[in-house]
């Protein structure tokens, strides 16, 4: 009986990994269908880790498809699971994802509230990567609110931690954010520099999706410079 459980659990995790790869390839519809199927397997096994990871992936896919209400409901279910197990690391991850969606919806107060709580947990756990991510997301909120000085401080604080961690992808993401901020402030020289730095890192890492986005942003900035 135990052997059958372990075999089914292993098979479910392999399918979950496949769904994650499909999401990374932007095959979101296929990934969502597979993740929901895997979720059913883990629920039947009454497996917390598998159920949580499946729901977490489903929430991310739903958000990428623009299904924001569904995604929020999914992450709230994840959050309830994490709190029921006193799993603070998973709780912080859920709060961060919820803040990301609320930011996209323009619900900045709710987003900031979730981020502050997530940051408190990350600090308690000593999770420097989590702290850096929350600082960056707080920077996005301040930028969207027009508080550019506050946004710059938060981005730079996030960047400092990511440098210490050697988080190249995180460094590139923050440089991209600094580029958007500089462009918003009309500093095209700085924006071009930040975008070039982000693009170089993303190209080295082979993250094609981000390479395409940053390259387009860089082209737009260069066109604006030519007109000015």
Q: How are the elements arranged and paired?
A:
Layout: H1 2-24, H2 28-45, H3 48-64, H4 68-84, H5 88-104, H6 108-125, H7 128-144, H8 148-165, H9 168-184, H10 188-205, H11 208-227
How many distinct helices? 11
Instruction: Look at the helices and sheets and give the structural class.
Output: mainly alpha
Strand content: under 5%
What is the string of helix and strand elements?
HHHHHHHHHHH
Rounded Rg: 19 Å
CATH architectural category of the largest domain: Alpha Horseshoe
Which superfamily, in CATH terms, is the homologous superfamily of the largest domain?
Tetratricopeptide repeat domain
What's the average pLDDT? 95
Q: Which fold does the CATH topology of the largest domain refer to?
A: Serine Threonine Protein Phosphatase 5, Tetratricopeptide repeat
CATH class type of the largest domain: Mainly Alpha
Question: What is the CA–CA distance across the termini?
Answer: 72 Å
- Low-pLDDT stretches: none
Major sheet description: none
Question: How many β-strand stretches?
Answer: 0
Percent helix range: over 70%
* Cα shape: globular
Question: How many domains comprise the coordinates?
Answer: 3
């Amino acid at each position: 009986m135990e052997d059958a459980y372990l075999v089914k659990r292993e098979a479910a995790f392999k399918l979950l990994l496949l769904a994650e790869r499909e999401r990374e390839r932007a095959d979101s519809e296929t990934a969502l269908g597979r993740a929901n199927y895997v979720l059913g397997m883990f629920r039947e096994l009454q497996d917390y880790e598998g159920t949580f990871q499946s729901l977490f992936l489903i929430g991310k896919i739903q958000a990428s498809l623009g299904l924001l209400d569904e995604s929020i409901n999914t992450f709230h279910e994840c959050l309830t699971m994490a709190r029921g197990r006193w799993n603070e690391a998973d709780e912080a991850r859920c709060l961060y994802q919820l803040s990301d969606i609320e930011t996209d919806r323009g619900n900045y107060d709710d987003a900031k509230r979730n981020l502050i709580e997530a940051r408190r947990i990350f600090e308690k756990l000593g999770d420097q990567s989590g702290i850096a991510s929350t600082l960056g997301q707080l920077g996005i909120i301040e930028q969207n609110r027009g508080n550019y000085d506050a946004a710059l401080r938060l981005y730079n604080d996030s960047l400092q931690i990511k440098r210490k961690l050697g988080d190249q992808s995180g460094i590139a993401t923050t440089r991209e954010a600094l580029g958007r901020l500089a462009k918003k402030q009309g500093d095209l020289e700085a924006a071009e520099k930040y975008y070039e730095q982000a693009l170089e890192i993303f190209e080295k890492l082979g993250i094609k999706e981000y390479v395409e986005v940053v390259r387009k942003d860089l082209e737009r900035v260069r066109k604006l410079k030519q007109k000015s």
